[in-house]
Amino acid sequence: MPIENIYLSQQAKDQLVKLKRATRIQNWNVLCRWAFCLSLAESSIPAPAKIPADSSVEMSWKVFGGPHADIYLALLKERCQHDGLGTSDEVLLAQFRLHIHRGIGYLAADRRIKSISDLLKRVPLAAL
User: Which CATH code of 3.40.50.300, 3.30.9.10, 1.10.1220.160, 3.30.70.860 fits the domain covering 5-123?
Assistant: First the structure.
């Protein structure tokens, strides 16, 4: 398994706290799934960055992915292949962290998200 545990930065944790308060979604993993998928939908490759693991938020891959963990891993691998990065364990872990943090940043920056229904509005109709 290329990704066993996920560690978030303090900035991401603070952003998730804000999102939890706005949406009333209580689980980090649910918001992180939204963030991951939102980032994957972006056509650009996440900018390389050193992201500190300086918060108390840690979750296992199984908790992040839940019953669909294999699907999330397949999506990540496909995206890494598409971006020409390969699928080594190191690449998958680095890209996953970049996508999670980019997606959390996107969600936190959207001032229109004040409820779960506002979060759902972020999903394009074509995806449904």
Answer: 1.10.1220.160
Partners of 59 in the β-ladder: 6
Share the mean pLDDT of the chain: 91
Q: Are strands 58-60 and 5-7 parallel, antiparallel or unpaired?
A: antiparallel
Closest listed residue to residue 8, CA positions, set 96, 77, 72, 82: 96
| Burial annotation 104-115 (CB, 10 A radius, 16+ → b, else e) | bbbbbebeebee
- Render pLDDT for 53-68 as a digit per residue (tens, 0 to 9): 899 889 999 999 999 9
